[in-house]
């Protein structure tokens, strides 16, 4: 408290005392006990009021002890059961959870990881994938500013994601891997990887690449087979030795029948081989009878052209030709879809031919588009001409009905540069994306589609879509989401199928280790998305002839059902509406494959290196007593005592108001009781 404040308090006490004595002792000669009591109560009241006016501040110091966090991250994938380590893991988790010394020194935090990362200590070992790098990324967000040594209980076998050995560039905590498994080397043959084109074309041959690996010291010979049902369609004898322990086989198979064809690749096991599950892999291809040819027409070079080409050709059913306005004229009938990039008056003949042939088209408008020409030749919409430019960001229309769209975080994408001015449509249209300026929606379409006279057309009012593809990669570390979005738009524009009220999205076949999600959209009679309907799916296992019924749940602008629990087999299904007699059917196949069962040992080397690089220590599951002792004795993880100094003004002290009220009440009561008022 400052000296000036103390002086004010002393003066307040003197003034309060003077006023109290003046009230009761200047008129009375005697100093009776009653007058002394009245004086004290009046002094207390006046002094308290003056203190509130002065409002001194008092410093309050509180001490607290902050314990470091101990993170226990447990591998919850199916490989733990496959390696017979599940009981040991449960015992270790329970041992850590009930250790009083650890609880006294640390805040224990339990997490599980597989494909997903969860804050939980419940273990099921049912996850079909393992992403250790994602676990470190999530932990880094939680414990970025704290001291949190991490116990990593895992076999170290990761099935997808970035190499977790390099996660230490972000995650700065000491890591203590508990290694599940042993270092024993078993003789093993396995199919390490099998690469195949998912969509070959009819009457072509599709390539297959397979990587075969041998662990052992002897020279052995085996046979690699590819079978389709009971028929062997490819075979090759392979030899391995300690020095020559891997083979890469490249071959082709014929695509002779339209539809899904299932195959099984097998590397014949050797005698006494322990793990025979990783000797075979199932795969499938969907043979397609047609290929979509698309032309992109532009009279100048722009990064958008390359991005559009890459995005569309990510689906090998589609090929792109980059042409100018002269070369397209003689080839127009060779393409199912024409993309017109920033048209100007040189596009006049092309527009005439497109209108005569009633061809579907995709128009992209940008800063170099001749809007006067476009307004003149186009009858479906008019763009206001202002000679000004603007940058527009995007907002997804969740009610868009012609086809299913996933939100790929459009709002995070950079703005597209375009012409400022309103757009007026003369035909019914639906906006996929709407324009926003600095987060405010202006109710104008940025990307829209419409159908007129049996023709489908889309128009994008902005350039620099290449930046969207780049941002999508930054967001997800993959181009897939953006390419899928463009692919759906192209599929809609290149097709002339009649619109349905119930639309489905599913794959013809699924790998047994992937999520099996079937999506559906249902529209009312005006083709507006209807979120009030209830949809059910009837699944029939064509092998066992059993049926199951699942409800579809509403998520954003579609209905979904997760069928990941279904065993590998061939299935047919029907999705039905509850309130209306509308249904749609399809078929799919689940291939038998569990990537978590491909491992024979723990990845000891990588886990030990992880411990060394993070200044931690590695342990085997059978020797975890040292882990607990090391954590308890490590001086880096000691509780920290912190002091917190708070400055509290007296006016916040509610008891002072109570004192004032009580002193006034008591004084009034005593004066009333003694007949003084």
SSE layout and pairing:
Elements: H1 3-24, H2 33-54, E1 57-66, E2 69-75, H3 79-82, H4 86-97, H5 100-105, E3 107-113, E4 117-118, H6 132-142, E5 150-154, E6 175-179, E7 188-196, E8 205-215, E9 220-228, E10 231-240, E11 246-254, E12 259-267, E13 280-287, E14 292-297, H7 303-312, E15 318-323, E16 337-341, H8 348-357, E17 361-365, H9 371-377, E18 381-383, E19 389-396, E20 416-419, E21 423-425, E22 430-437, E23 440-452, E24 455-461, H10 466-476, H11 480-494, E25 502-505, E26 509-511, E27 517-522, E28 535-541, E29 546-551, E30 553-555, E31 558-562, E32 569-577, E33 583-591, H12 604-613, E34 619-620, H13 625-633, E35 640-649, H14 654-673
Parallel strand pairs: 2-3, 2-5, 5-6, 6-34, 14-15, 14-16, 16-17, 17-24, 26-33
Antiparallel strand pairs: 1-35, 3-4, 7-8, 8-11, 9-10, 9-12, 12-13, 18-21, 19-20, 19-22, 22-23, 23-24, 25-27, 27-31, 28-29, 28-32, 30-31, 32-33
Helix pairs in contact: 1-2, 2-14, 7-11, 10-11
What do these coordinates show?
The chain is of the alpha/beta class. It contains 14 helices and 35 strands. The strands form eight sheets. Strands 15-14-16-17-24-23-22-19-20 form a nine-stranded mixed beta sheet, with helices on one face. Strands 4-3-2-5-6-34 form a six-stranded mixed beta sheet, with helices on both faces. A five-stranded mixed beta sheet has the order 26-33-32-28-29, with no helix packed on it. A hairpin with a 2-residue loop joins strand 9 and strand 10. Helix 1 runs antiparallel to helix 2, helix 2 packs antiparallel against helix 14 and helix 7 packs across helix 11. The chain is extended. The mean pLDDT is 86.
